[in-house]
Amino acid sequence: MSTSQQTVCQTDFRPSELGFGAGALSGTYDKIESHWPVEACREALRGGINVFDTSPYYGASEFVLGDALEAVRDEFPRSTYYIQTKVGRYGVTTKDFDYRAERILDSVKESMRRLRTDYLDLVLCHDVEFVDFQDVVGPGGALEALFKLKAEGKIKYVGCSAYPLPVLLKIAEHQAAKGQPLDVILSYCHYTLQNTKLAEYTPKFRAAGVRYVANASPLGMALFRDAGPPQWHPAHAELRNAAKQSAEYAKENGLNISELASMFAFTGRDIFQLNTTYIGLENKEDVQKALAAWKRVKDREQDLEKPTETETKVLDKVRELLATYKDYSWQSPTPRELA
What we know:
This protein has 339 residues and is of the alpha/beta class. The chain has 12 helices and 8 strands. Strand 3, helix 4 and strand 4 form a beta-alpha-beta unit. Helix 10 crosses helix 11. The protein is globular and about 55 Å long. It starts with a helix and ends in a 17-residue tail after the last helix.
């Protein structure tokens, strides 16, 4: 790929405001029926979602997503969507991380094979808080390998993901100072009904030259859903209970906590100019619900719809229930993840 071709690629990224979180296809949250992934991907693409997020860490997610996208290729060629995956994390604990350049290069090849593609749009260092700073930014480290692949045209955008926002900012500012700014930052669980710290950090990421800032897990990794979060969720018991009370209060008033949480996160994207909000989607119905919530937000922005009195009342109560834990961030890595 020539330099001029690379320039075209790097300025042509137009991600949808709503992104497909394909980690949910791994079965981590619920049992996945075999026909769900293809139906979900087709529904998403037909609905205007054009960016998919996955990782080798998410179990079989890359395989499942790759097979599903291959199944809809006649209707949606590879050029009609973007794939974002990650490198560096391959298991639950810190011992399952490998940020060496040679492992990163192999990881990208493995991901392309699983995803049935000969290039990747976005590749992120996964959960950078688990490793030493120099493993990420230093010579022979992960970012050096990824920027090499970008220069070769094998990937288009390089970035980092993590839970602690200060860790992401430190890396972004370091990269800006060395004249090689990150293209992408992916934050998760930091623009939700409970935690909106990403709004504070996004201008700082922009100042460090980061072009694309995305929010993932607007439901707080399933914290805000009727079924509640999985057992492994890192939130403490008190926050889990407050989220459960919020879901129950919404249900008592004829509303769904997941829909409220989604709409809250979608509304926030314009406040601080987020590029994409990724939400975990398991099946066609999940996609339809997410698209409907996104459309309602857009309609409200154009004054085509206004929040109901019931919705306002429920959101006020939810804020009250969560007030003690406003902007609380749990530990990452958690004790069980420290090897």
